[in-house]
Structure formats: structure tokens, C-alpha cells
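lol forgot to send this yesterday, sorry. C-alpha cells for the thing we talked abt
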């Protein structure tokens, strides 16, 4: 079945461009558009999209609050949110990830990256491009733990292997890449990731990556 996508952006020309790119793919269907966050909420309820391509700065309701309502408790459907951004709005992207977005993409990304991002998010994975993630976290290094703070008690619930996996998730690696790095199967990695999310009370890989940095387990710029 085709991936159902809702386009949310206050610029009609951008929505038209995204629609043309996505509708050229046989496995993607654009089911609707919205020009602000309030319209997006109505469209999500009415159309039940799989993925919402979400702008950040919009009138009436911004993309952060819309994301929070779409992915939060009591949500009406399984929609995943993929945030669109430019580097001058990085601080809003961090808030969107905390609000429940499954990832982010630059507005000037090549068409093939947009298509791939839609597929990744629809499959339940996080769209965490390592290069973009690193630049974001480096920019906000001053607001993240220095590494001298006590390690959160919740981290002690993880096994050594699960800590290794969490660090690699925070670097933006996929299950396949983590499996190759640790010389284990993808199924084993998936199991470890599931245990990490359950033990830490996290929703997905995006929250796991944010947690790893905020807890001081991983520091910006570290490999």
C-alpha cells in the first residue's frame, strides 16, 4: 500500500514542489495539504496520513505545537512527523524532536533524500542524518551536560551492550550499521534497541538520541 503523506507548509509553492516530487513515486500518495498547524490537526484527523511533512514556522499554530498534538497522548492515528527546517531554525528542530517528531530534513535537500526520508519515517525508523545531527548538537553544546554531572540512575538499568547500542543510535547509525559495527545480527540490534527504549521509558530512536546527549552519555563532536 502507498504511504499516505500530508504536506504542511505555509508557502503554497513549496507544497506544490513537494507534491510533484512525491507523486512521481509509485509507493507514495499525497493525500492532503495544510497551511498552518491548526489545519494540519484537522487534516490528520480527517485523512489519517502515515507521514506528516511538517514546516516549523507557520501562522496560528507552529509546527512544534502541531507535532506535539499529533504525536502526543490521545492522538487520533499513527501519523509520524518529519520536520522540515533550515539551519537558522535549529533551536526549533530540537523542540520538535522533543515534541515527538520522528526526524528532520533540510528544505533544500535533494529530491531523492526527501523520498527516502518519507520511507524511513513511515517504516517506524528515525530520520537522523548523522551530519545534521552533529551540527545541531555541536551548536547547542553549551546547553548540554559537560560530562561531569552524575549519570542518571536510569542508565544503570542498561547492560553494557545496551549502552553501546544507545551510543551508536545517538550517532545516527541505522540497525544495519550498528550490527556491522558490533558484529551482531540486525535482529539482535533491534532487540537491544527495544530493551533500551523500554527500560528508559522512551518512545523511539529520536528520543533515545536526545536522551544520550542530555544525560552526558554522549558529548557533541565525540565519535
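and heres what i got for the seq, position by position
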Amino acid at each position: 500500500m502507498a504511504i499516505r503523506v500530508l504536506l504542511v507548509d505555509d508557502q503554497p509553492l513549496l507544497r506544490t514542489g513537494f507534491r510533484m516530487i512525491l507523486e512521481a513515486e509509485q509507493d507514495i500518495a499525497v493525500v492532503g495539504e495544510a497551511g498552518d498547524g491548526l489545519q494540519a490537526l484537522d487534516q490528520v484527523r480527517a485523512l489519517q496520513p502515515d507521514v506528516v511533512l511538517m514546516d516549523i514556522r507557520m501562522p496560528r499554530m507552529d509546527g512544534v505545537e502541531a507535532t506535539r498534538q499529533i504525536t502526543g497522548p490521545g492522538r487520533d492515528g499513527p501519523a509520524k512527523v518529519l520536520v522540515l527546517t533550515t539551519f537558522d531554525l535549529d533551536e526549533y528542530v530540537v523542540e520538535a524532536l522533543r515534541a515527538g517528531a520522528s526526524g528532520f530534513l533540510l528544505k533544500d535537500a535533494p529530491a531523492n533524500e526527501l523520498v527516502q526520508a518519507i520511507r524511513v519515517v513511515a517504516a517506524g525508523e528515525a530520520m537522523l542524518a548523522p551530519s545534521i545531527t552533529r551540527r545541531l548538537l555541536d551548536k547547542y553544546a553549551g546547553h548540554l551536560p559537560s560530562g561531569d554531572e552524575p549519570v542518571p540512575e536510569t542508565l544503570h538499568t542498561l547492560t553494557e551492550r545496551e549502552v553501546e547500542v544507545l551510543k551508536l543510535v545517538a550517532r545516527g547509525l541505522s540497525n544495519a550499521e550498528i550490527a556491522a559495527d558490533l558484529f551482531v545480527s540486525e535482529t539482535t540490534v533491534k532487540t537491544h534497541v527495544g530493551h533500551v527504549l523500554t527500560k528508559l521509558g522512551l518512545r523511539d530512536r529520536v528520543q533515545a538520541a536526545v536522551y544520550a546527549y542530555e544525560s552526558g552519555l554522549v558529548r557533541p563532536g565525540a565519535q
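The radius of gyration is 17 Å. anyway ping me if u want another try
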